[in-house]
Structures are given as C-alpha cells and as structure tokens.
User: Fold this.
Amino acid sequence: MNSICVFRRWRLIVLVFCLFLGESSCSISANGESSPTLIQSIVNTTITTRAPTLIPSKTNAVTTTWSPSIRTPLPITIVPSGTRLPAIVRAQNRVSAGAITFLAVDPINPAILYAGTTGGIFKSIDSGGNWIAAKHSWINTYVTCIAIDPRSTTTLYVGTSFGGLYKSTDGAQNWKAINTNMPRSNISALAIDPVNPSTVYAGMDEGVYKSTDSGANWKVVNNGLVHTNVGVLVIDPTNPMTLYGGIGGDGIYKSINAGENWIAMDDGLSGRSVGSIVIDPTSPTTLYAGTNRGVFLSTNGGGNWNPVNDGLTSLEIHDLVIDPITPTTLYAGTSFPALFRSTDGGGHWAALKNGMDAAEVYTLALDPMTSTTVYAGTDFSGVYKSTNAGDSWNKINIGLLDTAISSLLIDPSTPSTLFALISDYFTGCCGVEKSTDGGVNWSPINNGLPNDPILSLVIDPVTPSTLYGGTDHGVFKTANGGESWFRISSLLTYGFLHALVIDPLTPTTLYLGTTRGIFKSTDGGENWSSMNSGLPDSNVMGLSIDPVTPMTLYASIYNQGLYKSTNGGGNWSAISMSIANSRIYSLEIDPSKPTTLYTAISEAGYNVVFYKSIDGGMNWNPITKGLNAYRVGPLAIDPITPRTLYLGSYYDGVFKSVDGGKNWVAVNIDINNATTMFAFDPATPTTLYAGTDVGVFKSADGGWNWLQVSNGF
Assistant:
C-alpha cells in the first residue's frame, strides 16, 4: 500500500497568501493554470482584501496566474479598530470548505477518514458525517499530503508546505516532527512501501528523500533526476522496488531499485506537468498520468504515453483514482465541470454532475472495501460522497464552513459581546456575526446590509451599540447593536474603500481611505469632505489615528510610504523618507506614547520585516531578535502594559515581547497558524482573541496558552 500526496500548493498557497496579505486581485484561471477604538484599546491593523485509496493517487501542482490590479495592489488598511479582510478562518471543529487539500481513507476501517486542509488535519470516524479537528503544534498547518501505514493504520505521516513532515502513531492524537537530515520544505508527496512500511519516501522541491526506519532518519535519493521538484510518488503494489515520480513540467521518472537511481520515462509526456499517477492493480505495467494537458496512458511500464482524453472538456487534471476492483473505472478531478468518470480504461470520459455542485475537485478517495463509495474534496464546497460510483453525490459537510472571518471587535462596555466580520469564501459575501457569550456562539446581524462585501467594521467607543460598516457602495450604520442597519452615504464617487477609522474621542468624526483619496465626516457619516492636500497620490491604502491626539493621523500611500497630518487631515506631509517607496503592511501606535510606532514593511518581494520608530515615524529600526518568523503580520499592544506586544505571523504562529520589541519569544501552544488579527478584552487585557486561518482562538493567560473558540458561523 502506498499513499500519494495531493499537491496543489501553488494555487491554494496563493489563495491563502492573497487573503493574508490583502492582494484582492490575485486571480487563478478557471482551468487552474495558472478593543475597538478606545484610548486603552489595541491599535489594530486592517488588512483589506477583495478573501487512501487502495491504489492512491496524487494531484498535480496547479499553475497559478497572479494578476496585479491598480485597484487594490496589496492593500493594507491601518485602523485602530481591529478590522481585517478576509483571512480564512474556521470555527472550532470545522473545516473550511474552501481548503480541502487531501482526503485519505483508513484501509482497514473505511469509516475513518482524514481531511487535510490549509489549517491542519481533521478526522471523521463516521464516514464523513462529522469532523473533528486534530490537535497539533505544527510550525505550519498547510497540509499537502497524508500517508497511512497499511498495516498499522493509526500511524500517519503528514506533509506540510514549508513546515516539514510530521508523524502520529495514535490516529492523529499526538504528533512529532520527523525531519532529521531533511530540509523543512514543501513536502509534495509521500509513499509507503506496502511490504515493508518502515520504508517511506517523501517528494519535495529538493527531490526524493527515503527513510528505512519509519521516518526517524532520511537520505536524499536523487541520482538521475534532472529536475528535483517531485510532486507525486507511487510504488508498484506488486514490486515495491519500482517507483514512479511525477515532476513539475518534466514528465515522469522511474526507479527499479527502490529510488537509488531514476530514469526519464517521458516519451509522449515531454513538457507535461504530472501531478497524478495511478497503477492498474491487476496489470501494474498499465499506468495513467494526470497532467496539465489531460490524462495519458502507458501500457508498458511508462515506456511511452498516449493521451486518453475523449470526452474530457477540462484537461487540467487535479487528481486521478482507479477502482481497485474494476480497474477499467477511473475518476478524474478537474475544473468546470469538476469531475469525470471513465468505465473503459480512459477510452471515454463522462462528466458526473448529479448533486456535484462544486466548481473544482482537487482530491479523490475510494473506500477500499466498497469501491463504489467515492469521496471528493473540493476547493470551495467541502467534501462530497457518492455511494453509487459517482452517479449521484451528497455533501457531507456537517461541521464544514464556506466562510472567512475578517474582523473581530469587542464591545468595550460588555466584553463578552463580540462582533465578527465574515465573508463567503466562494462568492465574497458577506455579513456581520455577533456573539454575546465571549465568542462561543454566534448569530448573523445583517438586517439592512447589502449583499456586498463589508470591507471595514468599526465600533463607537462611547456608544458601542453604534457600529459602522464600509463597503464599496456606501457606509452603513447600526444604532442598536446590529439588529438593523441603514445606509448613511454612498461611495460611488469616492472610489473603492480601503479604510474606515473612527475618532476615539469624538466618534461622530470618521475618515475613509479610498482609491480617490481621504474623506472625512464630522456628523456620523452623513456628509463627507475630501482631505487630500499634500498627498502625492489618491490611492490611499491605509489610515491610522492617534488614540491620544486624534487630530494626528497617518496614511499609507501605495508604494509611496507614509504621510502624516496633525490637523485632522487638513494637510499631509511625507515622513519616513527611509521607507518612502515601501509597501507598508501595518502601522500600530503605542497608546501610552503615541510617538512610538510599529510597522511591517515589504522590503523585497513579499518579505515583510518588522520595524519600530520612537520619533513619530521619522526614523525606523528593525526589531527582530528572537523573531523566528518568515512573514510577520498584525501587532497587538497591551493596553495596560504597552511594552508587552503580540505579533502574528503567516507561517509561525504568535510571538510575544515584554520589552517593547527588543526580544521575542514564541507563544504557540495550539496556535501555530497564520494569525491575522488580535483583539483584547478591555476589562481583562490578559485575555485576548486571535483570528487565524484555522479559527478564532482565545488566551486567558497573556498568550501562553490558547483555546479554539467560536461555533455557529
């Protein structure tokens, strides 16, 4: 038995990456180719965006097209109210239906399923009826592949993107990293020797690694590989010495000596990106390859390949599986439509649409004992199940979500009341949810809101029942805690919204940052005036307001650094010439000493570095000691002890500093996730909430321990 990783890292990483960094215009082609504003509250940053089978198979790495847009080029909206847009967030024990990366079935007990997601691994013990999040403390929670030991099925191997390899011997209860002599890289594929399961193979960007002691130690086995970006591995079930490896853009390689040497087998596959390989269990010289140009067949052990695409209207093959009982039956996961079946060994394919509402299927798995039971993991719609070989499908999504959390706000007068800004991961819409029990349960409060994305949410610090929601088509207001909303202005002439901030001392004063500049209202949003004097460009990506002296504001201009106003936006002047052409990803103001600022700046490509200024932004110095994070994100400043800071990161969880950023330590127990927002309990600042790519977390001890909360989105 071998297990193959489903590897769609580029497409899904870009989706998550876009949501985390705020690149609203990241696009992927249809075929896959390509506290609130209190003086004592945290000054938060807004990131605004526009969101085993018996013979297992492997999905290809999908080419992604990244399309910059002048409208929202990496927009970062800096606001003191904690708004974010949108980070993929899954509530407790729920899987985001927008991030099913891998499905695996226990070969001995098929009622046990494992789902890999961008936020970790989830387990079902009732054939997908319910899903439970597996606890872990991984460096990165993006699961790329899962392999199950065929003889001891409580032993699992999980590959992650940039987080290395992990192993559990108790059915996903506990995990340990197994990366000895192996780079902590994108683990693209896993395969277990069906005869000797202590032999495990891992494919990654650096090639193939092999372990003969169940993952304790690894050695590289790349001899003969011209290119090393191995995205799929399969083992011949009748001869474990024979392996096949799919290479991105370079066809298939074969080894007949357990990986020690490889030879190209690309006759007919030259230039194809291979992401799926399946072997006919009754005739192991018959192989099928799923590529970016359709399905190819070899009947001579990979010697040559021919296309078998009759009936396929989508040639971007994400995954292939073969029926182990009737191997002339195959299933192909594709895009638009999402799924095809062949009953004649690839001679002809027919789309399977009855109940399959998903746009794209990225991972497939068969029940090894009842092969007419098929599972499909989709990009946006969760998991589907068929019990009649694909003739009809039903969602098995109890506990699965399609929503993304974008912002967390806390009622300063009643801290058990929280507001969350959410968006549907597929459609981009939209709404506000409210919890009155500290985030345990949530209910929608959308009466009067448009069916458009809510891009910013702020709360009146004096009258917390008053909130404002900003959209591209207007600002909406509620005066009764969200029971009803009404439009107070149109933004059709103001451009696209990037920021909405509120004056903490005079809450009837609000500011908008848009693609046409900055606008100000002094009457609770009824009327707005342009405030652009001194700004070099109208494309305002972020706003931040001094919590002590609200006449002082900071504005980040796309690719033109930071500007400051000391007269309520009447005039603006450039500051921080050392970062004049930088993309400013966040700006936080120390509420006890407003001349102390913190910012995350893009220095090269998408490498974001954290800096501190003690002179109101004129000069900046990096503060990175102990900050072992690839990409930093939001900052939280303790409202009572401002030298205590919390910093989120994309890959490495949460970091804490108690000396104003001089030194950092990881505080990642049960929260090694992409962290995109923070909010403090204004009454008990040691209690804080974190929004991550796997849900909302709560800490009651200053971040040292975290508990996942939030049900009912």
Notes: Confidence is low (pLDDT under 50) at residues 1-98. The first strand starts at residue 95 and ends at 96. The longest helix spans residues 9-21.
